[in-house]
Amino acid sequence: MASLAGLSKLGLPRLSSNMDPEDARVIRNYLYQMQEQLQYVLTNIDTENLAEGLRSRLGDE
């Protein structure tokens, strides 16, 4: 299984200082939410969450 330790080290992109502060806040909040969702999915996926067809294909390899 791949390590998820690097996921917490993802940095936010630098936003232009010319950007409206409210737009920057909205983008930052969205990126934080996406990172949290990605971390949740990657830490909670296991074979019980896979479709039966995919589980059989993975078991055959």
Helical content class: 40-55%
Number of domains: 1
Q: Let me know the average pLDDT.
A: 83
Tally of DSSP β-strands:
0
Rg for CA atoms: 18 Å
Shape: elongated
Sketch the major β-sheet: none
Strand content: under 5%
The DSSP helix count reads 2
Description:
The radius of gyration is 18 Å and the shape is elongated. With 61 residues, it is mostly helical. The protein has one domain (17-60). The protein contains two helices and no strands. The protein has helices at residues 21-44, 52-60. The longest helix is centred in the middle third of the chain and has 24 residues, at 21-44.
Give the key terms:
mainly alpha, 54% helix
Topology (elements, then pairings):
Layout: H1 21-44, H2 52-60
The gist of it:
By secondary structure, the chain is mostly helical. The protein has one domain.
